[in-house]
Amino acid sequence: MPVIKSAKKKLRSDKKRTARNAKQNAALRTFMKAMRKAPSEKAFQAAQAAIDKAAKNHLLHKNKAARVKSSLAKLITKKEVKQTEKKAPAKKKPAARKK
Asked: How far apart, in whole angstroms, are the C-alpha atoms of residue 51 and residue 49?
């Protein structure tokens, strides 16, 4: 335990900051897991907001935040491609010409 008065104050502020950071990190992980489990536009927007807040408060490096957002965005495009493949009927091969 700290003995000096300023060290005691620093310990109190560090505990508050640690608790705040842990809460924000937990929220960030929750949104990212939800996005990976069920990719949707709404889930992506929520995850993106949480990632931006974490980067703003220096919980994530700005380049890591960009990389994570990019990977989550790819999940949405993969989902859209899969849905369009299911809806589009398979093309039939043209019949061979007779001579």
From this structure: 5
For residue 14, what pLDDT band results from cuts at 50, 70 and 90? very high
* pTM given for the model: 0.72
Neighbour-count burial for 17-34, b at 16+ CB within 10 Å, e otherwise: eeeeeeebeeebeebbeb
- pLDDT value for 43: 93
pLDDT tier, 99 (very low <50, low <70, confident <90, very high otherwise): low
d(CA 33, CA 21): 18
Q: What is the distance between the alpha carbons of residues 44 and 50, in angstroms, rounded to a whole number? A: 10
Q: What are phi and psi of 57, to 5 degrees?
A: -90, 10
In the numeric block, the tokens 């536009």 are attached to: 41
Identify which of 53, 48, 55 has the alpha carbon closest to the alpha carbon of residue 69: 48
- Give CA–CA dist 54/21, Å, rounded: 9
Whether the CB-CB separation of 28 and 50 falls below 8 Å is answered with: yes
